[in-house]
C-alpha cells in the first residue's frame, strides 16, 4: 500500500508538471552500436600517438562520434565498421543492440553507461592491432538525461524510472527509462537502434514523459 501511495503521489506530481508545460517534448537521440575506449587502447588499435578525430557532436557536452572505425569480434561472428565515441574513457565499453548479440555469440546485460562490472568481453580489431576485453559488452539502458532545471520542470528526480512515448509513426511507448540529472547534461532521451526502428524514429524526433514507474 505504501508503495502504491508513493506511485500515486509521483504520478500526481508529474501530471502537474506536464500540465504546466503542455506537450513538454524531449528530444530523442538514437545511438547505434559503438565503442568507447581508453587513450592506450586508441593507440593499440590505431597506432602510436593516434588521437581520435571528431566527426559529429553528440547531444551531451564534449561527447562526439569519431571518424575511426573498428570491428567487434565475438565467439560466433563479428560486426565491422563500428564507430568509436569520444573522448577517450577510463575503461572500455562496447554497446550493442539486443538483436546483435546472437550474431556475435555474446549475451550482455542491460546496463547504465559506465557500469561494465561482470559483463562479457570481446575482441576489438583496428587497423593497427587488436585489444582483447575481458569485460565491457553491454546493451545500453534507455536513459533520459537532463539538467536540474529540467528535472524541476518535468517533476522528476535523479534515478527516477519513467515511461515515455515516442512520436514516431508507430507511437511506441517505452518503459524502464532511467533519468539522470546532472548540471553538465543536455536534455535528451537516448535509445538504441532496435528501439528506434521499432518506433520508426531517428535522432531529432521527440518523446513525451507519460508516467513515473519508480523513484529511489
When the domains are counted, the total is 2
Biggest β-sheet description: 9 strands, mixed
The secondary structure category is: alpha/beta
What order do the SSEs take from the amino end to the carboxyl end, as H and E?
HEEHEEEEHEEEEEHEEEHE
End-to-end span in angstroms? 17 Å
The low-confidence parts are: none
In terms of DSSP E residues, the strand content is: 35-45%
Mean pLDDT: 91
- List the total number of helices: 5
Radius of gyration: 19 Å
- State the helical fraction: 10-25%
Counted beta strands: 15
Using the alpha-carbon principal axes, give the shape. Answer: globular
List the helices and strands and how they pair.
Blueprint: H1 2-20, E1 26-31, E2 34-36, H2 39-46, E3 54-57, E4 64-73, E5 78-86, E6 93-95, H3 101-104, E7 110-111, E8 122-125, E9 130-133, E10 137-140, E11 143-146, H4 148-154, E12 161-166, E13 173-181, E14 188-192, H5 193-199, E15 206-214
Describe the structure concisely.
The chain is α/β, with parallel strands linked by helices and about 220 residues long. It folds into two domains: about 1-30 and about 140-215, Barwin-like endoglucanases, CATH 2.40.40.20; about 35-140, no CATH class. It contains five helices and 15 strands.
Amino acid at each position: 500500500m505504501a508503495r502504491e501511495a508513493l506511485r500515486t503521489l509521483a504520478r500526481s506530481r508529474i501530471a502537474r508538471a506536464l500540465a504546466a508545460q503542455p506537450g513538454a517534448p524531449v528530444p530523442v537521440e538514437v545511438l547505434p552500436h559503438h565503442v568507447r575506449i581508453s587513450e592506450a587502447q586508441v593507440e593499440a588499435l590505431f597506432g602510436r600517438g593516434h588521437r581520435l578525430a571528431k566527426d559529429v557532436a553528440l547531444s551531451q557536452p564534449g561527447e562526439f562520434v569519431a571518424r575511426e572505425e573498428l570491428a567487434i569480434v565475438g565467439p560466433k561472428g563479428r560486426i565491422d565498421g563500428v564507430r568509436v565515441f569520444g573522448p577517450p574513457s577510463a575503461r572500455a565499453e562496447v554497446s550493442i543492440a539486443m538483436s546483435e548479440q546472437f550474431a556475435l555469440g555474446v549475451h550482455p546485460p542491460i546496463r547504465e553507461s559506465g557500469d561494465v562490472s561482470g559483463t562479457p568481453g570481446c575482441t576489438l580489431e583496428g587497423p593497427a592491432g587488436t585489444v582483447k576485453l575481458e569485460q565491457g559488452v553491454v546493451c545500453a539502458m534507455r536513459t533520459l538525461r537532463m539538467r536540474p532545471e529540467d528535472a524541476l520542470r518535468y517533476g522528476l528526480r535523479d534515478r527516477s524510472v519513467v515511461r515515455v512515448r515516442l512520436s514516431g509513426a508507430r507511437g511506441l511507448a517505452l518503459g524502464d527509462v532511467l533519468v539522470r540529472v546532472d548540471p553538465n547534461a543536455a536534455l535528451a532521451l537516448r535509445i538504441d537502434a532496435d528501439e528506434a526502428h521499432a518506433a520508426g524514429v531517428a535522432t531529432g524526433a521527440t518523446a513525451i514523459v507519460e508516467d513515473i514507474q519508480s523513484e529511489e
